[in-house]
Design brief:
Blueprint lengths: L2 H28 L6 H19 L2 H12 L6 H18 L3
Helix pairs in contact: 1-2, 1-3, 3-4
């Protein structure tokens, strides 16, 4: 599997986590019964933790940094995806 394929696979997982969090957030704001919030918060913290672990994993950092080193081999759209992911990853990792 190439670095870009690994990147896309990780991005797919990140988007799945984001979808779940967005749907749960929407449900919390519209239909969810008030009694469910403590349990929901606990479950969402687990999902958020998994998303954070994936985004800050050594594997993901290795993939992004490897793609940055070979950026000129990617097409324009792929370059933009990688640069955006690198910026986002750096924001999270470099939090003091």
């Amino acid at each position: 599997m190439t670095l870009f394929e690994q990147f896309k696979a990780i991005q797919k997982k990140q988007k799945a986590f984001a979808l779940v969090l967005n749907i749960a957030g929407w449900d919390s704001n519209t239909e969810a019964p008030k009694a469910c919030f403590p349990y929901r918060a606990e479950m969402l913290s687990i999902i958020s933790g998994e998303q954070f672990a994936l985004t800050t994993s050594e594997t993901y950092q290795h993939v992004i940094n490897g793609l940055i080193e070979t950026l000129d081999t990617l097409d324009t759209m792929q370059q933009k995806e990688v640069l955006k992911a690198k910026k986002s990853m750096d924001k999270i990792i470099k939090i003091p």
